Amino acid sequence: MAVTEPTWSPASWRALPAGQQPAWPDAAALAAVRERLRGMPPLVFAGEARKLLHGLGEVAEGRALLLQAGDCVESFREVSPIPIREKLKVLLQMSAVLTFGASLPVVKVGRVAGQFAKPRSADTEIVDGVELPSFRGHTVHSDEADAAARVPDPERIVQGYYQAASTLNLLRAYTKGGFADITQVHTWNKEFVASSSAGQRYEQLADEIGRALAFMQACGIDLAAERSLHEVDVWTSHEGLLLDYEEPLTRKDSLTGDWYACSAHMLWIGERTRELDGAHVEFFSGVHNPIGVKLGPAATADEVVALCERLNPRRLPGRLTLIARMGADRVRELLPPLLRAVRESGIPVVWACDPMHANVFRTASGVKTRRFDDVMREIEGFFAAHRAVGTWPGGVHLEITGEDVTECLGGAEAVLEEQLDHRYETLCDPRLNARQSLDLAFRVAELMRG
Ligand code: PEP
Ligand code: MN
Q: Which listed residue, 108, 259, 378, 430, has the most CB atoms within 10 A of its CB?
């Protein structure tokens, strides 16, 4: 049954102000790109989005956890399978730690296969002493420090589509083709992680999982027949920022007649584009995917409840994920009133903690970074707020990579300020490296048990 409002269409957002859209220099070229995308296959299917909706519904009702993680922004230069495989390994490791530690299913969602466009607080940035238009992601322009290279080029949207397709194809192969089989749990521990304290702890956990499986086998359970041990679902997500990309990939499901954004399983609305009367909220009100909304420290209870009413009028558990990013110092004060107001509204939501985006700062030498301790402090505050109010801390939303980068400070094998330039590779925000990510998963599992 179609439930979309009669005035809604994939293009109805066009009548409203759309924040954070690139200044495309040529409207005709952009329209031609939209037309081409309209003729291309969907990247994901409505039935998959519904399966994720069901999984998130379990999170909303306190029976599962959400782990959403990946790059701040994907790069057109990372086309090889290796960084994708490494990212997946960390996600599988973190998920094993959380599933085993909390004895709960973990819904795994990557910021992957389409996370290409960035909102920016300022229109310009200084690179090597030169003022340039701020970098808005590879589907918009090149990150080169050159004014001509920063002119938005709609052809890049098409390139983003193809890279998303190729990334998603690889993810499907890895997750369904044996790589994510639970019997491979040891092989996900990577060399530079294995030697760390979190890596060693992971080895022990992998041994325990092995023993638990052997025990089940010995009890007569046919493990080979248990599909859920041999395949996993890793869903894709990105910020649904570029509406000229989302609109042509929005398709009507032949089974239900409902519209789905077929660029990813889940999409979220960023902190900078969540105005109730803005284009993004209009667009996402009409698609039936699970969606998220980022909530920063300025979000008011009335605003949040209005977003819930607008985006989840049918009160479907799993439809809406509220991703709070309040800051380590303020989460304990700012989150409880929002938790109470949403509970009183009776609208079911998943509450996720993004402990990254309100804890960014620049070092004295100007490097954008985050402290592992602040990230953990915000997660602890998020759990404390839920405990105090009696709501379910549904999960975490993180910026991570599978590589041994030095972008965030601290962790058990601490990255020091003077080491930041060793491997600082992100195109936008600093990510936790694989060791820091695994360390974090163990600590979150402890909070779940605590
Ligand atoms: C992001 O997730 O990379 C981002 C820009 O987040 P926010 O909208 O919360 O600032
Ligand atoms: Mn970011």
A: 378
Closest CA to 237 of 123, 71, 119: 71
- Report the SS3 class of residue 96: helix
Atom of ligand 1 nearest to the CA of 325: 9
Q: Whose Cα sits closest to atom 2 in ligand 1?
A: 72
352 in a domain, yes or no?
yes
Residue 7 inside a domain? The answer is no
Determine the Cα–Cα distance for residues 401 and 404; give it in Å rounded to an integer: 8
The model's pLDDT over 254-288, given as tens digits with 9 standing for 90+, comes to 999 999 999 999 999 999 999 999 999 999 999 99
CATH code of the domain containing 299 = 3.20.20.70
**Containing domain of residue 53, as a range?**
12-449
Q: Is beta strand 266-269 parallel, antiparallel or unpaired with respect to 234-239?
A: parallel
Residue 1: what pLDDT? 45
Is there a domain that residue 6 lies in?
A: no
Residue 262 structure tokens: 């077929």
Average pLDDT of the chain, as a whole number: 96
Whether residue 287 contacts residue 261, with contact meaning beta carbons closer than 8 Å, is answered with: yes
Q: Looking at this predicted complex, what is its ipTM?
A: 0.99
* Averaged pLDDT, 57-68: 98
- Atom 4 of ligand 1, nearest CA residue: 270
Q: Where in 301-342 does DSSP place strands (E)?
A: 320-324
**Rg of the chain taking only CA atoms, in angstroms:** 21
Domain total of the chain: 1
At 137-180, the pLDDT tens digits run 999 999 999 999 999 999 999 999 999 999 999 999 999 999 99
Known binding residues for phosphoenolpyruvate: 111, 271-272, 294, 325
Token pair listed for 199: 């890596």
Q: Is 289 exposed, middle or buried (0-12, 13-18, 19+ CB in 10 A)?
A: buried
Residue 440 within any structural domain of the chain: yes
Pocket of ligand 1 (CB under 6 A): 72, 119, 239, 270-272, 294, 325, 357, 429
**Rounded Cα distance, 124 and 383, in Å:** 37
Kindly state the percentage of the chain with pLDDT values over 70. 99
